[in-house]
Amino acid sequence: MGRRILGALILTLVGCSTASQLASNGDPAPIGMRISTDGTYGYTEENPVKVGGAGDERGPSNERAYLAALRGPSGQVVSFERRGSCCVFKTKNGIMGEGGLLDIYEVTYDGQEKPTTLYLNMYDYEAPQVPRGFTRAPHPGQSAMLDRHPSD
After folding, report:
1. Pick from 76, 83, 80: nearest CA to 101
2. Cys staple from 50: which of 60, 112, 121, 138, with CB 3.0 to 4.6 Å?
């Protein structure tokens, strides 16, 4: 019995350590993702969500994973569709080390008046946040509503 408890404790500690590592190693939807305090975050070409991953061919999958982690203001599951690319910008992580393009996504959820447009950068990485007006998918045992911005 004592060995079972010790084994369960070791597995729990290893699991917590692994989750922490994943959250800090470029996961496009990290566990600690918070609501942005900047109302332009993700909504403008000048302030896109930087999910990274293009250098090792994970850019598009990082974008999809990030968007799939978003929820509407009341926890609604979102749908998204890539609408194209725009907005050439300079980045050493881009095509031939010169530049990149932002991807434009249309994001919808039940009860929304009109679709939202979000801009994502798959060339550069910065710890992703949740754009104002959205929440994030809960992790097991947590409510998405815990992550609402106080002014929403």
Report:
1. 83
2. 121
d(CA 140, CA 22): 16
Q: What is the pLDDT of residues 7-52, one digit of tens each?
A: 333 333 333 322 322 233 344 555 568 899 999 999 999 999 999 9
Closest CA to 25 of 48, 49, 58: 58
The length of the chain is: 152
pTM over 0.90: no
What residues does each domain of the chain span? 27-141
CB atoms < 10 A from the CB of 44, how many? 15
pLDDT tens-place string over residues 64-94: 999 999 999 999 999 999 999 999 999 999 8
How many other β-carbons are positioned within 10 Å of the β-carbon of residue 93? Answer: 18
CB-count burial class (<10 Å; 0-12, 13-18, 19+) for 53: buried
